[in-house]
Amino acid sequence: MPKKFEQFTYTVWWNILIITIGSIIFSLGLKGIAVHHHFIPGGVFGLSLLFYYITPVISAGVLYFILNIPLFALGWMYVSKRFFYYSFYATVIATMSYELFVFDFGIQDQLYAAIAAGALCGVGCGLVLRTLGSNGGLDVIAVMLNQKYNFGIGKFYFLFNFFLFIFSLFVLDIDLVIASLILVFILSIVMEYTMSSFNERKLVLIISDKSQEIADEMISHLKMGATFITGKGAYSGNDKNVIMAITNNIMLKRLEQTVFSHDDNAIFIVENTFNVLGSSFNKRKIY
Prior knowledge:
Layout: H1 3-8, H2 12-34, H3 43-54, H4 60-78, H5 81-100, H6 110-129, H7 138-149, H8 153-168, H9 174-196, E1 201-207, H10 211-220, E2 227-232, E3 239-247, H11 249-262, E4 267-273
Antiparallel strand pairs: 1-3, 1-4, 2-3
Helix pairs in contact: 2-5, 2-6, 3-4, 3-8, 4-5, 4-7, 6-9, 7-8, 10-11
């Protein structure tokens, strides 16, 4: 990611734009698909919808906003004021768009509806979580626990949704609960993919007797950085310089060709890494 663009992504207007788009897409998935099939999308909005299905006295969007008030108080005290403002804005946009949208995508098949709703909601949630804020709801508590106590965000979501769906079994048909689980599963996958888009890096380890030649060409022709890690062959006992490099999908093939053009017997190891912070890579995300 170019340095200027990376700095731009930390500006207020960029964050507001992405939060607005993400929150609207999230609401489209809920109001256009999930509600018409009585799905539970998990999280605080899922809890709001469950109460709405039981007693439709108050709108799920309004109830979602009310339930967020104490959570935002925690975000203000324990995370940061900037995180609070962005997350509050995301919740306001999600609530307003949910209340204003009145339409149906017209998907009749329950399985297709669960997949489509999960995909839309996942894209929306992922876009918002790429910013310096959150979608509100569980995100506030999850980020707080992760920042303060290093408690995994995924673990917290799992525990909350586990009890939510257990309770749903006493209220909804089991087919609806299973379809809702499919929705949440799709949502999680799409959300993770959306968050990692354009950020995924490849960690490459190169073991070769011609490591110096390879490293020189990486620096001079591929314009890539490289680091030598001192290693020793367990069988031969010979010292070796293992090259460690971080690259992306575009440059990976060129790097592979460079390595094997110098040494047919080289070992080329590639690992996916979600995020790389520091130096010329991504800036650390501070809420």
